[in-house]
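Example 9 (inverse folding). The structure is encoded as follows.
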């Protein structure tokens, strides 16, 4: 999707003091400084938490998914949306009967502001360890996209999230009987990482995938066909193949509308049976959709329609 023009701001809030006293200034919190309020208004539409299957929940928004996995030893959060959405995420965690301080790990799909700029505040509030693909670590820690990111020219900067543990493709995170596997899916960003695990209900276990974006959107003047970007273009092709080959009974995409998750969530809340998220073909369809867009992008570049 196109990213609106960045309009970051960070004015301190003013709190009224009763009894005619002068207004008092609320202490500035850099980790909650709003990022791109124009886009945030589109993405951060509040919704109640949603039980997806087994130990898996969504605690994010209509336009941005934030995943939650319950284990015997604490919680695993996937992505963090934007800073101004952090209070709603934490409220959703509490609404499920959990505690924010029980979040042990926060896994990142990509270092772009829409999915990662809220991670810093969530990590601080929970004392969780932040984990991401190795190529995303510097961008997360600095809040600045890497120079080889296709969208670096127009992505918002944000306050760095703090220390990040980088992992390679196939690395596993184990907590309380649950194993989450890192699946490198670079292309949308160099460090994009999807995450897979199993969720079970009454002995029926399903392969879960929380997928990073595979959208081949790029800033003006970025060409995947440029010789300097050939490595990322090849990696993008591999990511489509990887996504198709994953065991995948239930797909959760970072942007719900990219996989039909927005519609499925509405259906699930309405009590649709069987569970609309159960779709063994979802990951293949997800990869097919965005590889077709990537093919079009490449064709447009070669025809000179993208400069």
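The amino acid assigned to each position is listed next.
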């Amino acid at each position: 999707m196109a990213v609106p023009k960045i309009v970051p701001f960070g004015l301190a809030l003013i709190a009224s003091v009763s009894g005619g006293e002068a207004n008092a200034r609320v202490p500035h919190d850099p980790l909650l400084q709003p990022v791109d309020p124009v886009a945030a208004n589109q993405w951060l539409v509040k919704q109640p938490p949603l039980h997806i299957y087994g130990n898996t929940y969504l605690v994010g928004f209509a336009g941005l998914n934030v995943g939650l996995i319950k284990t015997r030893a604490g919680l695993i959060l996937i992505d963090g949306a934007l800073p101004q959405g952090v209070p709603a995420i934490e409220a959703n965690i509490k609404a499920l009967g959990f505690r924010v301080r029980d979040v042990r790990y926060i896994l990142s799909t990509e270092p772009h502001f829409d999915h990662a700029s809220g991670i810093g505040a969530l990590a601080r509030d929970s004392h969780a360890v932040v984990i991401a693909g190795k190529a995303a670590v510097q961008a997360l820690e600095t809040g600045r996209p890497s120079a080889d990111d296709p969208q670096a020219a127009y992505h918002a900067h944000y306050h760095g999230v703090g220390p990040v543990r980088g992992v390679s493709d196939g690395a596993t995170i184990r907590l309380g009987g649950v194993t989450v596997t890192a699946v490198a899916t670079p292309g949308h960003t160099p460090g994009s990482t999807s995450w897979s695990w199993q969720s079970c209900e009454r002995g029926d276990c399903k392969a879960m995938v929380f997928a990073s974006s595979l959208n081949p959107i790029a800033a003006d003047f970025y060409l995947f066909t440029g010789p300097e970007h050939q490595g990322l273009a090849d990696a993008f092709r591999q990511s489509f193949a990887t996504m198709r080959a994953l065991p995948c009974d239930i797909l959760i995409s970072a942007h719900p509308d990219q996989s039909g998750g927005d519609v499925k969530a509405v259906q699930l809340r309405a009590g649709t049976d069987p569970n609309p998220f159960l779709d063994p073909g979802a990951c293949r369809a997800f990869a097919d959709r965005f590889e077709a867009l990537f093919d079009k992008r490449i064709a447009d570049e070669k025809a000179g329609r993208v400069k």
